[in-house]
């Protein structure tokens, strides 16, 4: 995962995570209405904190790529298909 922007500045961890998940969603590796990996798994796999996971999921939600179900987690939106996934 890249750690700098085109301008050479550091990219925040939540944006790096969001980019990695976005690539998986749009590449069809996580299908619509399927859950994202649990937060703890994302923390371990990407070396980020819980707050970074929440912020990344919020960012993807703002883009319409994921939705959350209280107490159940985040899921890929069917809109992801319309924007290039699956």
Structure in words:
With 86 residues, the chain is mainly α. It has one domain (13-82): Orthogonal Bundle (Arc Repressor Mutant, subunit A). The protein has four helices and two strands, in the order αααββα. The chain has a two-stranded antiparallel ribbon with strand order 1-2. α2 crosses α3. The chain is globular. The two termini are 23 Å apart. The mean pLDDT is 89.
Q: How would the blueprint of this fold be written?
A:
Elements lengths: L12 H14 L12 H8 L3 H13 L3 E4 L3 E4 L2 H4 L4
Antiparallel strand pairs: 1-2
- Looking at this structure, what is the CATH superfamily? Winged helix-like DNA-binding domain superfamily/Winged helix DNA-binding domain
Task: Compute the number of strand runs.
Answer: 2
- The CATH class, by name, is Mainly Alpha
Question: Structural class of the secondary structure composition?
Answer: mainly alpha
What are the low-pLDDT stretches, counting only 5+ consecutive residues below 50? none
| N-to-C span | 23 Å
What is the strand arrangement across the widest sheet?
Answer: 1-2
Shape: globular
CATH second-level architecture: Orthogonal Bundle
Overall pLDDT confidence: 89
Order of helices and strands: HHHEEH
Q: Count structural domains.
A: 1
């Amino acid at each position: 995962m890249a750690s700098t922007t085109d301008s050479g500045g550091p990219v925040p961890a939540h944006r790096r995570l969001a980019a990695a998940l976005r690539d998986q969603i749009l590449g069809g590796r996580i299908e619509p209405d399927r859950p994202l990996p649990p937060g703890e798994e994302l923390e371990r796999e990407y070396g980020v904190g819980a707050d970074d996971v929440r912020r990344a999921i919020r960012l993807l939600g703002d883009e319409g790529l994921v939705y959350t179900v209280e107490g159940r987690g985040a899921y890929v939106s069917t809109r992801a298909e319309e924007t290039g996934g699956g």
